[in-house]
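Title: Prediction job returns without error message
Component: structure pipeline
Severity: low
Priority: P3
Assignee: unassigned

Description:
Job completed but the reporter wants confirmation the result is attached to the right record. Sequence as submitted:
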Amino acid sequence: MHFKPEEILKTESHLGQIGLVATEGAKELVDRVDEYLRGWAGTQESFIVDSGCPRFSSGDAKGILNETVRGRDLYVFVDVGNYGCTYDLFGYSNHMSPDDHYQDLKRIIQAVGGKAHRISVIMPILYGGRQHKRSFRESLDAACMLQELQAMGVANLYCFDAHQSMVQNAVPLMGFDNIMPYYQVLKTLKKDFPDIVCDKDHFMMVSPDEGAMHRNMYYSSVLGVDLGMFYKRRDYTTIVNGHNPIVAHEYLGASVEGKSVFITDDIISSGESMLEVGRELKRRGAADIYCYATYGLFTGGLKDFDKAYADGMIKGVLASNLTYRTRDLQEREWFHEVDCSKYTAYLIAAVNHDVSVSNIIDPKDKVEALLEK
């Protein structure tokens, strides 16, 4: 870092005082970010703006700010993947969908009414991010979302490990940063598994598919280890659950025999692909297998991962705290959480004082220092 947040947060910013706004589902992350910012600023006063999106029993809602935000530099957090949030709908308990969270984000922006100095949105998992391109007669949800937020006066949007960051081309005049928590991942891996030897003879990276190659290439480059890849052979004649089913995983790369293998991706959805890759690597003689995804969704439940861990197929699964994690997941012995709250607080402190975030977005120096240590 070229700046110290404990120094700059004690100086006045021309962009206004920081204001953190948490939509339903993002409150846990915002609380932790606020704790870091208060510590650096040396104040007991919270940066969190008192707000809410109450709902009528019919399902209608409204955004409310319970204090003034005039002239403040606002950072509105939204976790569109938090299905653990519920609301009453005609007597039924309804789980919030990504659409519900996104609507609440827009309600909060409406409540601001143009009074803030600047509005930035921190949306770790990008709304509609998995539908980033048009192949047939399809919607382009992420692109439309970005254009809508730009029209509402949002100055910047910050996301983490977007499924496809090229969606930012929809808003070339709006700030868009796709942040990768490389350092936080490696720090957690080394802390929780201190016996790992990250050199070319004992360790290698494997990408679960061609789409995840860029993040695995980064790890292999900074670690100086070999990189392998699986190619997903799909049946393009049918569609199951919105996508073409995988027929087989074909491996390309150096031998994994006797090596510890680290597999990284942006999302673990059902986890079928990650586990199939793990099984194939074990068949090829891999030693310990570690998995990471920025967003551990586990839409198919945890039983398959429980079995894989019990059978010794996987050594551990890492995922960030940037989206909702169930209590059951957090209590699993094989689950290791990557905390990105301090990283997010660094970002906000820098942006609020117009400090370059290049070293925050590309933590190569910090990764090298970690490995030397």
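Comment from assignee: result matches the submitted record. DSSP finds twelve helices and 16 strands in the chain.
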